[in-house]
Amino acid sequence: MDTIASLFSFITTPVSWIIVQFHKLYGAIFGPDTGWAWGLSIVSLVVVIRICLIPLFVKQIKSMRNMQALQPKMKAIQERYKNDRQRQSEEMMKLYKDTGTNPLSSCLPILAQSPFFFALYHVLSKIASGDTIGVLNQQLVNSAREAHIFGAPIAAKFTDSAEKVAALNASVTDVRVVTAIMIVLMSASQFYTQRQLMQKNVDLTVKTPYMQQQKMLMYIFPVIFAVTGINFPVGVLVYWLTTNVWTMGQQMYVINQNPTPGSKAQDNYLQRLLKSVSSHGEVRGRRRRSVVQGIVAKGADRNDNERKFIAGLTKAGFAAQADGTVIKSDMVTADAETGAAARRQQPKRQSKAQRQSGGTHQTGETKPSLEKQQDTPPKPAGKSSPGTPRQAKSGQRKGSQRPKHPSSKK
């Protein structure tokens, strides 16, 4: 670890300078030799670093969104080449390259913090040995050596011997209890952050390698922190616990305010938005209007959460508009009823038989057919008596006969 830290020695001077500036501020409040002054200086260092990394975090979010948008295509590749793993991997890499997506984007903040992390480790190692480093002179080094956080010196480690811990005016029990608690909190916060991302902010309907990667990171990172944490000084554990808490809060904000489409977090967000629209009768806020506008623009491509949201608006008596606003759906219903009434007023279309027979006159009289317009032959006399039904001729249908047309001769 010392060799790795020495590789980042070029950044130890800026890191030590930031710590000293914050130490002057907190030292005036809590005392220069207290653990609060040095501990809060390390916490403030984390805040400064994370603020500087916000643009990188925004880039990470965009890359993760691109990964979510590519999931249907990735699933199609999996189905197409499910029996050829090599071709599947090649097509995946080609898809990443064509869309400019980095599947390892979730690791970018950790990689960007690595120089500061190892530089701080190098600074604390020098403090533990009593050597000056960066802008820390001997007086500041001695002050930092005397600083204790809950009885543990900020430069002490879990694996330090009793003699080394005694040289820092502390006991092995205090150091190991404090470091063990901080290691557990550090690993638990990392696990919770990744688990929150997997359960709430990922579209679980599509299984992709990206999903497997995130699930793997959820278990790997806490184990790494737990194993390597015993070699970290207390000050480094303070640094890493603070950055994990920052990441957890940042992730919670993103999940609540900008969830991934198709995720459980999006469903919760849209339900809150539906409740707000139902209570106030409008979409409040520019960002919320842009969300509704995007859902309307998707049309038939909406996911289940978005279709559920639109159905909820309709049930509540509202209709979403293309500009992201909503209007009372009774106006839309009135327009639909007007159009339906206009369609009902149109004349009915005649059937083919009606068109061939000439249909119906406007006066209501029926056109006689050509056959019935022809004169029928006279009835032979004496064949039947009045009131007696005629005898059916050979080949004629028995029973009542069709009445003759009035125009036929009697």
Describe, in plain words, how this protein is organized in 3D.
The protein has 410 residues and is mostly helical. The chain is built from 18 helices and 4 strands. The strands form 2 sheets. Strands 1-2 form a two-stranded antiparallel sheet. A hairpin with a 2-residue loop joins β1 (148-149) and β2 (152-153). α5 (71-80) runs antiparallel to α6 (85-99) and α10 (172-200) runs antiparallel to α11. The longest helix is centred in the middle third of the chain and has 29 residues, at 172-200. It is elongated and about 115 Å long. The N and C termini lie far apart (124 Å).
Rounded average pLDDT:
78
State the end-to-end CA separation.
124 Å
Note the total helix count: 18
What structural class do you assign from the helix and strand content?
mainly alpha
Radius of gyration: 41 Å
The biggest beta sheet, please?
2 strands, antiparallel
Query: What helical percentage do the residues reach?
Result: 55-70%
The proportion of residues in beta strands is: under 5%
Q: Widest sheet: strand order?
A: 1-2
Q: Label the overall shape.
A: elongated
Low-confidence stretches: 359-376, 379-395
Q: What order do the helices and strands follow?
A: HHHHHHHHEEHHHHHHHEEHHH
Number of strands: 4
